[in-house]
Design brief:
Largest interface: A-B, 90 and 90 residues
GO molecular function, one term (chains A, B): oxidoreductase activity
Oligomer: homodimer
Family (chains A, B): Belongs to the nitroreductase family.
Keywords (chains A, B): Oxidoreductase
Strand content of chain A: 15-25%
Pfam families (chains A, B): Nitroreductase
Number of domains of chain A: 2
Order of helices and strands of chain A: HHEHEHEHEEEEHE
InterPro entries (chains A, B): Nitroreductase, Nitroreductase-like, Put_nitroreductase_C_bac
Structural class of chain A: alpha+beta
Strand order of the largest sheet of chain A: 1-2-4-3
Radius of gyration of chain A: 18 Å
């Protein structure tokens, strides 16, 4: 798959074919992708917890907040919940700072997941204390992000931002999830080119 | 290219064939990849400055710090300096928080660059005030990361972490850049699988 197609297919999926489980070996291979990415000062302070079993998925699920812009939707129903999780933590014994390593790792994992036919969502609304207990994490590990994974069971489309500039995603009557994205030109502040590199 | 190969090829390159310039259209296409990525609360608060001209590259270069672990190397010499930059800032009028969006965007851009035959490096050691002046950024924009880009002119290899646990990258007598990466198993804190998902 060309890289742009991978990026386009990598939407934030929140509903899955829960019965289609993900082998642990796939989760390990995804972490190995993250292992090979850039890390600030090459500290490599991120640590990963891998959950593929049905019972532990059930324990992780209640620690997560879903889709803040869909207040009437309490998250995926049984049968459409994630089939696996990768929980990204940082070992505070190694660093007190976060330079963006977790974003680098999370994006790399999700792009790799899409290539394997899965999809997922980065969740930042997490009951971190409770999830750390569920996973039995060491005290020095601080949870930064949870990646929910599975075979997607929903359609997600990218729309232009509406005229009123509302960035909130929404779901239509057919259940299609719409994500407004800003126009390309609005993201570019300045550009400097010359004869050699002109567009 | 398979995604894992893309990740493996995407090393942090700091020396380039400076004369091989990057068309502005390529930089714009890379920002369009970042535009399509996940964004916390879908705020899409990142803003991008694109530099491909020789003279502006010369103005950006002195604002950057290079390779903290190579104290005797002051950065790439003329002729091997970056051929372009993408400067990632956040618009503080939109958010006061950084959830990792810049890591997501930076990694996506660099992976896209590798597919196009370029390579680059995320630089966090930046004279932000000076660079903001050089680029003429609005006061509300805070620079988070600089991506240095070009056609790589160095070999970068991933090594196992040495026994003493030293994470510092180093350069051998042949000029090959070595980056020690932790062993996969050391990054995985816990794993939970069952009969269906066992390895």
């Amino acid at each position: 798959m060309r890289f742009r197609s991978l990026v386009e297919t990598n939407r934030s999926y929140r509903r899955f074919h829960e019965s289609r489980r993900i082998p642990m070996a796939d989760l390990v291979a995804l972490v190995d992708l993250a292992r090979l990415t850039a890390s600030a000062r090459n500290l490599q302070a991120l640590r990963f917890s891998l959950v593929s079993s049905v019972d532990m998925c059930e324990s992780v699920f209640p620690t997560l907040g879903w889709a803040g812009y869909l207040p009437r939707w309490k998250g995926p129903e049984p049968g459409e919940r994630p089939a696996a999780y990768i929980v990204i933590a940082v070992d505070r014994d190694l660093t007190s700072e976060d330079w963006g390593d977790h974003g680098i790792a999370a994006q790399t994992i999700l792009l790799g997941a899409v290539e394997k036919g899965y999809g997922g969502c980065m969740l930042g609304s997490v009951n971190r204390e409770r999830l750390a207990v569920v996973l039995g994490l060491p005290d020095s590990h601080e949870i930064l992000l949870v990646l929910a994974l599975g075979v997607p069971a929903e359609t997600v489309v990218v729309d232009p931002l509406p005229d009123d500039g509302d960035v909130r995603y929404w779901r239509d009557s057919a259940g299609v999830h719409h994500v407004p994205k800003r126009e390309l030109e609005s993201l570019i502040t300045v550009r400097f080119c010359d004869e050699t590199t002109t567009e």
